[in-house]
Amino acid sequence: MNLKMRKSIILLFALFIGASTFAQDEKTAAGLYNEGLAFLKAKDYAAGLPILEAALEKATTDENEKIVGLAKKNGAIAASNLGNAMKKAGSIDEALVLYSKGIEWRPEYAANYRGFASVTNEKGDKIGAVKAYIVAGDKYTASEKAKYASSMYKKAKNIVALLYKEKDYPKTIEAGKAHLELKDNADVAYYVSRSNTETIANEEAITYADKAITISGDTVDDKYYVAKAKAYEKMGKNADAVEAYKLVTGEKYKATAEGKIKLLGSK
């Protein structure tokens, strides 16, 4: 090959590369979106998500509201799936970023809230996790997915229950109050009451025992009456404790209540 021909080939190759780069730079928002969507359909979320982000950026600049909406919608799905993969691999900080991004893009999409709550719990932020699980439950409720909503609310309650079981009473009180600010739950109010009795033993224990009773309506668990009675007893208010123990009717606590009524009534 002579020098002249070689220079021509190099020039053509350079022009080809330049044209390809120019074409890449000039992709429309719709073109980028379709490319990213193709990766999502193949379940290659790691490849598809950055392209959808590029589509979103381009569409925002071009004021293409249709592509903005589509990129956010499917980007949130990609963020959730990629976040799940990161969480499974132990990269929880990266997963948290992805879930947060998905929530920002599509606030009504519940899956990212569920992932966010799970990772928050894994990071040891129990208060944040309780709140996040309740928000996730609310999102599933809004999307009429009652089964998933129930699961999220149960996880929030179980965090409080586990803290109580571990005898971390101050943290139980904090987590329980955070829960009750967002969603009533009789058992959570019970855990707050009992934790107060085990620590500072003030009127707050009575307040939360009454709250548990009120939330229960016509089907009050006897342990809520026992919680109220124990609080009064710890505070030295034996007459009030006796009245609370008298409300116990079920077999599980009946013998204990009757024994306490007899003992405290004689003092």
Structural class call reads: mainly alpha
Distance N to C terminus: 114 Å
Shape: elongated
Which fold name is given in CATH as the topology of the domain at 184-267?
Answer: Serine Threonine Protein Phosphatase 5, Tetratricopeptide repeat
- Main CATH class of the domain at 184-267: Mainly Alpha
Q: Could you tell me the mean pLDDT?
A: 90
Q: Give the SSE order as H and E letters.
A: HHHHHHHHHHHHHH
The total count of strands amounts to 0
CATH hierarchy: architecture of the domain at 184-267 = Alpha Horseshoe
In helices, the fraction of residues equals over 70%
Question: How would you describe this structure to a colleague?
Answer:
This protein is 82% helix and 0% strand. By secondary structure, it is an all-alpha fold. It has a domain at 184-267: Alpha Horseshoe (Serine Threonine Protein Phosphatase 5, Tetratricopeptide repeat), CATH 1.25.40. The longest helix has 24 residues, at 65-88. The protein is elongated, with a radius of gyration of 29 Å.
Describe, in short, the structure shown.
This protein is mostly helical. It has 14 helices and no strands. The chain has a domain at 184-267: Serine Threonine Protein Phosphatase 5, Tetratricopeptide repeat, CATH 1.25.40.
List the helices and strands and how they pair.
Elements: H1 3-25, H2 29-41, H3 45-62, H4 65-88, H5 92-105, H6 110-122, H7 126-142, H8 146-165, H9 169-182, H10 186-198, H11 203-216, H12 222-234, H13 238-245, H14 251-265
Helix pairs in contact: 2-3, 2-4, 3-4, 4-5, 4-6, 5-6, 6-7, 7-8, 7-9, 8-9, 8-10, 9-10, 10-11, 10-12, 11-12, 12-13, 13-14
